Amino acid sequence: MKKILALALSVLTVSSVLASCSDGRAAENYSPKITVSSSDAAESAVWLTEKLGDRLTDEVYLAVGDAKGIDMSDFENDGYVIRTDGGNALIVGRSADGLDRGVRKYAKAVQSGTADGLDITYHEGYRVKRLTVCGRDISEYTIVKVADVTEYEPLAAQESMDAAADELQSYIEKTCGARLAIVTDHDAAPAHALRLAIGSAADYGDEAFSIKVTDSGDVVITGGRYRGCIYGVYDFLEEDIGWRFVNDIYGRHSGNENYQIDYLYESEHVDVTSAADRMSEPAIAYREIFDGGDTMHGTSLSPKFKASLGVPGAYGLTGKACHGIDAAHSQIFLNDEYGGLRAEGGQPCYTDEAIISAIESYTLRRAAECIASGQRIGRELVTIDIAQPDSENFCICDECRAVFNKEGCNTGAVLMMTNRVAASVAEDYPGLYVSMLAYNGTEAPPKTVRPLDNVRISYCFYIANREDLYCNAHHIDDEDCEENRRFTRLFDKWTEMSPNVDVWYYPFQWYNVAFQDPVFDSLYYDMKYLASQNIGGLMCLTSNSTVSLLASLKTYLASRLAWDASITEEEYYAYALEWFRIVYGEDSGENAYTYFRMCETANDILDECCCFFHYGEDTPGTHHMVDAKYMADNFDFMYELYHDALDEAESAGQEKRLKSYFSGMMYVCIGITYEDRYTNGSAEERAVMEERYRECYDLYVECRRTLTVDTVPVGDHGAVDVPVYLTVPLDLERNPFEYWVVDPI
Fold it and tell me: What is the tens place of the pLDDT at every residue in 240-290?
């Protein structure tokens, strides 16, 4: 590790470095007191000028990369150096981001009167200066992996074992700089090992893992047949070394590809001791948790969250039902090859022999194609989706009506069709499932028809019809919530008649997303309830395809609960606070978290049923999700909270995230207080409201905040959801609730 300057610089040395700050690029649209080394430092110069104004009295030199004898090669990308003495200031960043952070740190010091004599080195070298196991330096260790996992389990995934070893090697190097060799268990045993092992199928299944430090000082991570080791590696990195893995959906939607944040707590010394002795297994067998985009579909973030989708070597999936017989959802065919068989209004006729035969033929053909490609039943190939199209308009022919009258619901005909296909599949392909939805007209089980053993039911806690929606404001099993009581009652009936029930769960708001949905209290209890129901799999959708700023937090928390449902409520919110600190900054994240909990309180006080998934279609302001009086009474406090957070932001990225997040507060509070404080307010109140109204408008434009979701048809079948942004001109004489809205379809 290269040292730039001794931390205890003499005044003479500092002065000599700073005295040369007169060369470089001349000021353009920033203070003449600032000199920049290159154009990539100009943005920071402008920001510093605007921030400090006439309080900028130092002669400041800003640079990106090596400058004035300071070698930045060992710094992290966000690293920087600040040196001040006698009216001169030198700020050097490893990158533009690093300079931005350094400039902000310097500005805070100026504002607090502590800028003279600064000597700050930020993120030079590695976050952990020394990493040991029972006092032994990590550099003495070797990573040992299983050479051929098929010796332990014929269907195990070598890919997952290899990925686990590679990730362990990579992150230890990122931690402290030590790059450990990777060998196999067929090689000569090293003196000290970080050992990846395969446990018995009976004890570890597919995904469980244990971590243990042996008496000899080896670390042994034992995992299930194919995913256990990689989950164990990430758990070891988190719990024993100090890594945190989070994602930032806002970063993705703003064009930043680096929306995955790998964060490591800084430490002079981390010692992994014999206290690292634990075993862990998932509360829910299959866990598909995603934010509506692609953050959980790759091979990087998903295993870090202990989710099933996108894990290296991840076969053996439950497989979800998702409108499989609708070509708009890309899997099957009724709109294409068998387009003439599609019933008017969206659903096919489930009693028509031609349609049933078409679905049956497709399913068998699909199974044959998958097997021919090398997929194995029970592993890569678990189920074929033949679930209904996304429509509540069912066939009302005489045959379908007769089944409806006998079974009491549309589900009867759908399940009869599914059973027919399942029987053929069981005959030709034993062990293969077919899947259907219990959703939007098929949520109720039929009176007499029962699913065959190879039928999987995906029950949706969401919608029965447009007038009958699941309530997000109360817990799934809240006995006082009539809507949820109905859904859980039907869910119980399905689980009584079949052991193969999965769940679709939707803790988010779809249409009007100008304000963030306060569903986190419900999310905690809902996830614990679902984990207690012995379901086969969970498909948790935390956002649609548009930006919902807290989708990443919901994904983070839901993933933790899906793995470990024993997390206490205190631990749950501690994870939330930690997420805010990592994503929004240490101090500004505290303010954002405070506002987050206030939104939860405002929803608790309201205590009214509503489905956030569709909320906003008929209630443009979305303020009905929270108690209006509480928000109005706390508007001034929350506004100050926001601006305090901005002052504490450590980077431009954090500042923009804060602006985007708090803009929802501005929108709702302005709408709620508009009549009292603007229309009927005093001159002073009107002036304050006008200032905040303009600020809110500018925030939505600057941050490209989504107001609503509009659904745009695509060809003859299907549609896509697109975000709708603020484009109307500013009109202070209208409540934003009245015109910042696009009519939903």
Answer: 999 999 988 765 555 555 578 899 999 999 999 999 999 999 999 999 887
382 shares a domain with 263: no
Residue 504: inside a domain? no
Q: Could you tell me which residues come within 8 angstroms of residue 117 by beta carbon, excluding any fewer than 6 positions away?
A: 84, 85
Q: Which of 432, 455, 478 is the last residue of a domain?
A: 455
User: Per the domain annotation, does 102 fall within a domain?
Assistant: yes
Residue 48 covered by a domain? yes
pTM, two decimals, is 0.91
Q: Are residues 621 and 733 in the same domain?
A: yes
CA distances from 618 to 48, 508, 624, 734 (A): 45, 17, 11, 19
3 state SS of 185? coil
Query: What total number of domains does the chain contain?
Result: 4
Nearest Cα residue to 212 out of 272, 134, 276: 276
| pLDDT, tens digit (0-9, with 9 covering 90-100), for 423-474 | 999 999 999 999 999 998 999 999 999 999 999 999 998 765 555 677 888 8
Q: What is the pLDDT of residue 18?
A: 43
Residues 384 and 252 grouped into a single domain: no
Check if the beta carbon of residue 387 is closer than 8 Å to that of residue 323: yes
Q: Residue 543 CA to chain centroid, in angstroms?
A: 9
Best CA proximity match to 390, nearest among 29, 21, 26, 717: 717
How many angstroms separate the CA atoms of 80 and 85, rounded?
Answer: 17
Say what angle helices 635-648 and 586-606 make with each other, to 10 degrees.
Answer: 160
Q: In terms of domains, do 103 and 146 share one?
A: no
Cα–Cα distance measured from residue 148 to residue 160, given in angstroms and rounded to the nearest whole number: 12
Task: Report the C-alpha gap between 331 and 328 in whole angstroms.
Answer: 8
Interatomic CA distance for residues 709 and 741, integer angstroms: 10
Residue 93 has pLDDT above 50, yes or no: yes
Q: Give yes or no for residue 224 having a pLDDT over 70.
A: yes
Same domain, yes or no: 160 and 273: yes
* Same domain assignment for residues 107 and 161: no
My answer on whether 141 and 264 are in the same domain is yes
Please indicate, yes or no, whether residues 387 and 449 belong to a single structural domain of this protein.
yes
Average pLDDT, integer, range 491-495: 96
| DSSP symbols for 99-150 | HHHHHHHHHHHHHHT--TT-EEEEEES-SBS-EEETTEEGGG-EEEE-S-GG
Tokens at residue 122, please?
């930020």
Q: What is the pLDDT of residues 656-699, one digit of tens each?
A: 989 989 998 999 999 999 999 999 999 999 999 999 999 999 99
Q: Which domain holds residue 341?
A: 321-455
Q: Report the C-alpha gap between 725 and 703 in whole angstroms.
A: 10
